[in-house]
Amino acid sequence: MNDLETLREAWDRPRPASPAAQSAARAALLARAARPRPKRRWAMRALAVAASAVVIATGATVFQSLGGGEGQPTLPAANAQVVLTRIAATVQEKDFTPPRDDQWIYTEMRVRSHEKDILGKRLTPQTPLTSKIHEFWTRADGKRVGYMVRGKLMTTNPGDRTPENTYAMVAALPTDPDKLLAKFRKIHAVPDADQDDWIFLRFAVTLQQNVPPPAQEAAIFKAMAKLSGVTVNESAVDDEGRPALSVSRVSDKWLKREVLLDPSTYAFRGRRETALADHEERYPQPGVKKFKIKDGKYVPSPPRVEWSIEKGTVWLAFTRTVVGVVDRAGQKP
């Protein structure tokens, strides 16, 4: 037996690819094959060979092609559904230790936003944003929350919470994407509004404020793929200038909401909202009747521009700088 044979016998056999990973790889290859290509016989033969190689590949090879290894994914994505399926397959395989009920989820966020008093102002890409650090503790069972007030730790009973706010509630969410969507549509029933926009935002906040179990995190990304108008940019940049993968949706035809992920591990990095078009916030909104008292009578309030924002201006940006499980409020990972 030569040296190579000895090493081969010593190595463990790779695990077979999970059904989700195989599905993602197959979807990506089919999407790639469907894209227009130069009419060269050798190119089509190479694609066929590559497809066969992936089908018979070991689990380790498939997992690396889905973005679990170093560097950028090797399978190009044709649409958001392919990319989000790939992300779901990867996060579902991550190592995870669930917190105990008496432990706390700690998050530290850097928030960049405009000043509260923006009445009468026009916001542009050159308008400075205020940057602040926010620290927050949530007990895993959801019974207590903690936060800093003027340098002092305060804890309180949070009362009624929504699924994105506590680990216990996130861990109880359905792992089937259709059932997950149905649950969020029931919880976040927004009349006379774009419900998909609202649900996309709640999914973003769930990823931001918690450490969801792999099955629930994968379900969130699969459910995102089913929302209308969701797009993916694998060559984005996060709020700190680092390469990032962006999952986004446009709200009200002018505001782009982004979930920013690590491009290799797909760990949540932050989220950002940017104006895609010039926009004026008017009061009252068109079609909405508002009134004020004049001489003891109610009369329509004249419309006015409250504030405006220029295309390309960042409206709001969150960067999650620290997240982890600790044993008590006030403690940091």
Largest sheet: 9 strands, antiparallel
Summarize model confidence as the mean pLDDT.
78
Q: Structural class, judged by helices and strands?
A: alpha+beta
Q: Approximately how much helix is present in the residues?
A: 25-40%
β-sheet strand percentage: 25-35%
In DSSP terms, counting alpha (H) and pi (I) runs of 4 or more, how many helices? 9
Taken together, the total number of domains comes to 2
Report on this model:
With 333 residues, the chain is α+β, with helices and mostly antiparallel strands. It has 2 domains: 15-78; 104-274 and 313-326, no CATH class. Helices cover 31% and strands 29% of the residues. The chain is built from 9 helices and 14 strands. The strands form 3 sheets. The protein has a 9-stranded antiparallel beta sheet with strand order 5-4-3-1-14-9-8-7-6, with helices on one face. A hairpin with a 5-residue loop joins strand 3 (130-139) and strand 4. Helix 4 packs across helix 5 and helix 7 (177-187) packs across helix 9 (214-224). The longest helix has 16 residues, at 19-34. The radius of gyration is 24 Å and the shape is globular. The model is unreliable at 1-78 (pLDDT under 50).
